Amino acid sequence: ASNMLHDFVCTCDKDPSLTATDGPATCDKDECSSSPCGMDQTCEDPVKELSSIHDFTCTCKNGVVTTGAAATCETDECDPSPCGSGQTCNDPDKASNKLHDFVCTCDNDNSLTATDGPATCDKNECVSDPCGNDQTCNDPVQELSSIHDFTCTCDNGVVAIGAAAVCEVDECAAAISPCGTQICDDPNKASNKLHDFVCTC
Length: 201
Description:
- The chain is built from no helices and 13 strands.
- It has 201 residues and is mostly beta strands.
- The protein is rod-shaped, with a radius of gyration of 39 Å.
């Protein structure tokens, strides 16, 4: 009822917060600006107009897509297991939107793990020097699926599998004494040493 001009207000029907005075309101709106999608999701609003609200899409990294709302990206990355044979898979965040966080653990050595891929379960058992003094260690198959298959070989030819060999030998106890008619003494017969016997006249 007043004489004022140019004071009319235009309000967008579907979003009354969008207004303009003395001219049409700008009702275009990028719905992704409010981050309606969940963590680790990609939001896209193909038509940024209020006439097409709730048409934004949320896309999970694993390909799940939802229109007009955050997607449910829940997935158990361990089903089926991406880990190798002899490994256990665990997905701690299967109820969240996280991907590539599964853990592979070697069954026979839980200290060997890897995230987002199979663990390296190969292991040279000879590294820890399981054989005794003066023994040669050999691990023919360096995989956890074949642990305790290393061999320990004594200088005198005695071989043990999966443990240190017992190389004890009394060199003076041979059927024919290495000292002939002299007195033979093997001071280290309880060790792995060979050729250390002593002949005494």
